[in-house]
Amino acid sequence: MWQGIAFICAFLVHNSLQQQINIGAFFYDNELELEKEFMDVLSAINGPESAAAFAFNPLIKRLKPEDNSVILHEHACDLIDNGVAAIFGPSSKAASDIVALVCNNTGIPHIEFDVADEKHQEEKPNHRMTLNLYPSQPILSKAYADIVQNLGWRKFTVVYDADDTKATARLQDILQMRELHNDVVRVRKFKRDEDFRVMWKSIKDERRIVLDCPPDLLVDLLNTSSEFDLTKQYNNILLTNLETYRDNLQDLTADNETFAVNITATRLLLNPDPQAYLHQYGYVTQRDSVVFESSEPSRTLLHDLLHDGLQLFAQAWRNATYFYPDRMSVPRMSCDFDSDASGGRSWQMGRYLMHLMKGTSGLSGTNFRTSNLQFDEDGQRINFNIEIYDPADNIGTAVWDTRGQITQLHTKAKIHKKIVYRVATRFGLPYFDYKQDALELNLTGNAMYEGYAVDLIDAIAQEVGFDYVFVPVADQEYGKQDKDTKQWNGIIGEIINNDAHMGICDLTITQARRTAVDFTVPFMQLGVSILAYKGSHKEKELEAYLEPFAVEVWLWILIAVFAMSFLKVIIARIAKAEWENPHPCNRDPDALENLWHLHNTFWLTVASIMTAGCDILPKSPQVRLSEATWWIFAIIIANSYTANLAAFLTSSKMEGSVTSLKDLSAQTEIKFGTINGGSTYNLLAESNETVYRLAFNLMNNDDPSPYTKNNDEGVERVISSAGDYMFLMETTTLEYHREKNCNLRSVGEKFGEKHYAIAVPFGADYRSNLSVAILRLSERGELYNLKQKWWKRNSSHCFEEPDPDATPDMNFEQLRGIFYTLYVGILIAFIIGIVEFLLYVQQVALEEHMTFKEAFTREMKFVLRIWNNKKPITSPSASSSLRTTPLRSIEKRSMERTPKSAHRIVLGRSSEEMRELPPPPPSARPRSRSRPRASSSCSNSGSKSIVVKGERKREREGERGREEEARV
Prior knowledge:
This protein is an alpha/beta fold. Helices cover 42% and strands 15% of the residues. The chain has 33 helices and 30 strands.
């Protein structure tokens, strides 16, 4: 019994020595979970009863939603009258700051753990005793803006609750971006009782949304957005409410199989190892004013901030007790300043406690759930960390701090998450187009498309190892920046707005585009050339070799040939030097002969103009002068024909007049243009070269505009104009269209070296992998094979026009007329020869009393013996195609021709004396049949007439000798 009495006495003494400190708090009826957290934390702070020097005693005031500021004032004064050392709450549901004003007047510390309105400068002196653990709204707004910029969003929509008066302050920095770019940042509001579908319909095509909403509305909002394709795989949502947790999305993903939106959420960074304490009051969950027992705690941000607020006050109380142990007593204050309890003064140690809590700088520890507790002089929390995480997987990806830095976390976990890369592109052969049988085979996804870009991305994906999906841009543009809004469209705009991970097509690297996106190493090198109309190929006519001269020129040449031939006969007949001795061995000829009869003059005239030469030439000065004049004429005609022949057999003069951009800019008959806003357009617009600037100015001044929307429109315009329009385009695309259409050609050499590459966002970690894959494909020759596959596929077999700048190579088609003329000439010559040969065979058959067949057979056998070049002279009875004519017939023809010939002049005797000469004796005639062999010099002349004249001369000499003997 004495032991029990001693224990009771010791307990009473301990209680009298342990200081009891009242802590007041406000909680609404539906905040039972927070109230339980408050009780549990105080119990953990108090610890074992035997060890604690002081104990916090909770005094709780419960509120109802309809309670106004008067009731709050009464409850606050009641707590102060009960000697509380601090007051926690109420939450943001309270519409009045009366509690802060009461605490400021009495010097009682007031600690808030929920978001509160920002105080104006004139209101701050009335809130000196208020400390708020919730992050400061201006700094939180800056954090959201930094996160949006880090995500690379330049076009997005902000959606928030119109009934939330604190939302605008929380999203202030993001909303200010709308003032600068109204077309880029859109704002939509919703109300709790409205139909959310109206709001979602207004932003149906939006792919990036900043959503600020209470956790209890998140599932309903996302469910209604699914009808407008806002929760698909390539949509992105940023949740700004710090109380959004993973358990709110589990129901959504379970009910909606098509829910694949990329959600990024934010929350305060918690310490990894929070202090464990006993929840002696158990776990409860309260929904719609109904309390449920729970096996696990339902923690929210307010639980953690309330916990840290209690721990911070307890630490400040310990420190104040350590420095001022005699002054740290239970305050005796009253809201009535006229009473004797307070004496009209505030509690000084309360202000000291507030000073200690505000002086906390970057406080972290196991006693606190959040890190880096720090406050400014107005009691606002200015230091905290925001964790950026994936609420679906509950994996933190990055951490934001108040310096504006974002540190990446859990890199390995992100790698294992499969990413399907969006590849932005545009339709245009041969890079990207629908398959012809896509609809028939009901193809979907990437299987619908084909082209060079499709094969290239597939090869890179196999090399690197990733999945992809093609996303054709709606405006079918490469990417051009608007001068007014500074926004990009096309493929570049898709990448900037994070609608695509990469972009590929015939996309040229330019300086302007490099300021907006990044590029891999080039996969194709090219330049700019001129596409022109060639027209279908026409075969040359048979008389194409006559085209260098007009018809009248050829007629005048023929007239000149015949005229000169007749004139030479006249000039030669009056020229003394042209009359020659026909028998050089006879120094005393009976007559002279003129060689320039019509056959020889015509032959010399034609041989001269054909530059073939001739075996006979004139001797007299006058004939030589006329012939020299003809030679000058012949040389000019022949060289003129040779010089013009190649040009008339290759290309026309109009086609050869434009061979470069300089020639194109120097004329006005042919219009030319390019793609409006494309890389070629920028090359000419931004260049300082004279030719480029002149070409650009000419295109700008043309009406109608020479610019086109794409390459296909430019090619169609070239074909339809039939030579009146040329199009400046990249050489690779030009080669493709030239292979497909034989009516197109390339003019001049390429200029302005360019490169095609894959566009990616700045800082993309997969850029280096794409570049390495392109280099490997190039080294293995696969890039070349891909180009050959798509450029030579279904190509037309076009006639290859020769290069006008090179020496033209004439083919048979161009020169066939000359060959046909040769064939006709040879055929006519053979016909004449055959006719003459048949007549001669007939003569031989009559003379030698043979049949025509026998004579023809014998003569043909000799003709076919081409190795035998000698034929003996036979008697008159002998037959030979080349035999010597019988001497008798020769004498007869000579005698008959002598007095009548125009080529012989009888010298020394008159006509009467010639008639008086006696005829040769008959004995002399047989001797003429077996004529003696002529001397070597005379025989070399080979003339049969000379032999006859020699025989006659000897007969006349014999007759003179006999006459002289008779006189003697």
